[in-house]
Amino acid sequence: FEVIDLGVMVPAQKILAAVEEHDADLIGLSGLITPSLDEMVNFAAELERLGIDKPLLIGGATTSKAHTAVKVSPKYSGPVVWVKDASRSVPIASHLLSPAGRERLMGEVDAEYAAIRARHAQKSGERTLVGLEHARANRPRLDWSGYRPMRPRLVTRQDPGVCSDEFCQLHAGETQFVKVFHDYPLDELREYIDWNPFFAAWEIRGRFPDLLNNPASGEAARKLFEDAQEMLDRLTEQRWLRANAVIGLFPANSEGDDTIVYTDETRTEVRAVLHHLRQQGSHREGISHKSNADWVAPVGSGVDDWVGAFAVTAGLGGQDKIAEFKDELDDYSAILLESLADRLAEAFAERMHERVRTDFWGYAASERLSNEELIAETYAGIRPAPGYPACPDHTEKSTLWRLLDVEANTGIRLTESMAMWPGAAVSGWYFSHPESQYFVVGRLGRDQVADYAERKGWELREAERWLSPNLGYDPED
Fold first, then answer.
1. 305-316 and 425-430: which strand pairing?
2. Above pLDDT 70, what percent of the chain?
3. What b/e sequence results for 348-385 when a residue is b if at least 16 CB atoms lie within 10 Å of its CB, and e otherwise?
4. Per the omega criterion (within 30 degrees of 0), is the bond before 434 cis?
5. Percent of the chain surpassing pLDDT 90
6. What 3 state SS string does 377-419 have?
């Protein structure tokens, strides 16, 4: 097979132009981040509109057979096949290019996808949602009367150990600080790597380090781990990657399901509003319906609270080295480097959160946790990321980018679909309340989506587009 690689974050029109230019037999889409899922659905609909009938292969870390069957396949009358991993792409492509093979394969796939859609429809029908007002009335009941959030050490100019002129940027006329890090030591970050997702990405199952001694896959796991350690040594020594970060801590209070970020500690002028979503799925008695707004002291509570934001990357410069490996036909090294850059970015987020808790904010100054305890999230506070289960709206990244001037401070940019580039990047919010916890927003009712659209200044359709994976109703009904 001849593969025409168009790269990452490619618009639909560029793909379609390449299909025509090269008279492609097959079209492959890979999704590594959640915004890609909606793009795939839109692309399938565009193929249908144009009357194209070429086989469409769907793959990538965020895709699944269920998403392909329920969301993508119904939009396109041509062959649509989810490819579990790269090793399956060649035999599937071979079947699709053979008339007999295509008929046999698609007969099996179509039957399986129809069954998945039927099960999904049944589950969707069984899943009940409560009204938005009911969910809000059932919010977590935190006692704010005896709670006094710590004023972050980062905002105290008289603490040079925390914020020196070399690292801190003071916004004119404001008292809060933004701290910027350039070329953060990779040797330090590698000590914070969580190796479980690394091996899962390479389809080696089990818990690290036990999987290294698994009788079935231990040999392959040990070889991969040795290669990873050797590449970490080389990329650090030869500076293949650069790691930058920016963090900020801001005066804040909650109002309804939003968090109000103030310009300064007088709390009289609003600088930004963080929009949150609330769980609406039916819960058993005694289980609250959570929103990230619940972890911040309400306006009028008399409590001066704070919220944090961060963006980190360990992928700067990585694309050049990955391209070099690909030019040398060394795909293994290219994929390995990409995997390690992702792990280092997550490690950077972990390390920075630790420093925030113990130093820059300082609300857990005495914390001393092992890497295993950090991975198990035994610390106080959370760092949810826009686009993930507790805050599924990717567009909230744009607010984060404005608060921290992320692109100027780190080199991380946002694409039109709100993906971060370089891809080895993590961003999110810091909440310090000891009762704050991660949760899954889940399915949303039309009442909340309409309310959210109004708060964001959107038309309802815009909200439904960005929240489509979470809709608990059919927008067409």
1. antiparallel
2. 93
3. bbbbbbbbbbbbbbbbbeeeebebeebbeeebebbbbb
4. no
5. 58
6. CCCCCECCCCCECCECCCCHHHHHHHHHCHHHHHCCEECCCCC
Q: How many other CB atoms are found less than 10 A from the CB of residue 279? A: 24
Strand partners of residue 444: 471
List, in order, residues 6 or more apart from 434 with CB less than 8 Å away. 380, 381
Burial of 291 by CB count in 10 Å (0-12 exposed, 13-18 middle, 19+ buried)? buried
Structure tokens at 51: 């009357």
More confident residue, 49 or 299: 299
Confidence (pLDDT) at 175: 41
Amino acid at residue number 273: V
Instruction: Decide if 92 contacts 61 (C-beta within 8 A).
Output: no
How high is the pLDDT of residue 109?
87
Q: Which of 357, 298, 255 is nearest to 144 (CA)?
A: 298
Going by their DSSP bridges, the two strands 56-59 and 80-82 should be labelled as: parallel
- Alpha carbons 142 and 436: distance in angstroms, whole number: 10
Classify residue 435 by its DSSP letter.
T
d(CA 263, CA 251): 8
Beta strands 413-414 and 258-262 are unpaired
Q: What is the phi/psi pair of residue 258, to 5°? A: -120, 160
Residue 112, amino acid: E
Neighbours of 108 (CB within 10 A): 10
Residue 251, Cβ neighbours under 10 Å: how many?
Answer: 23
pLDDT for 186 equals 96
Q: How far is CA 407 from CA 188, 353, 364, 421, 425, in A?
A: 24, 20, 30, 10, 12
For residues 383 and 321, give the distance between their C-alpha atoms in angstroms, rounded to a whole number: 31
Q: Is the dihedral of CA 462, 467, 469, 474 positive or negative?
A: negative
- CA separation for the pair 152, 138 (Å, rounded): 31
395 near 418, Cβ under 8 Å? Answer: yes
Q: Which two tokens stand for residue 419?
A: 């993906």
Nearest to 197 by CA among 340, 45, 321, 4: 340
Task: Give the separation between CA 282 and CA 267, rounded to whole angstroms.
Answer: 36
d(CA 136, CA 389): 18
Question: What pLDDT, on the 0 to 100 scale, is given for residue 234?
Answer: 96
The whole-chain average pLDDT of the chain stands at 88
How many whole angstroms from its chain centre is CA 463? 18
Structure tokens belonging to residue 65: 């057979």
0.70 surpassed by pTM: yes
pLDDT tens, residue by residue, 71-89: 888 888 888 999 887 667 8
User: Which residue bears the tokens 């009941």?
Assistant: 141
241: its two tokens:
């990657």
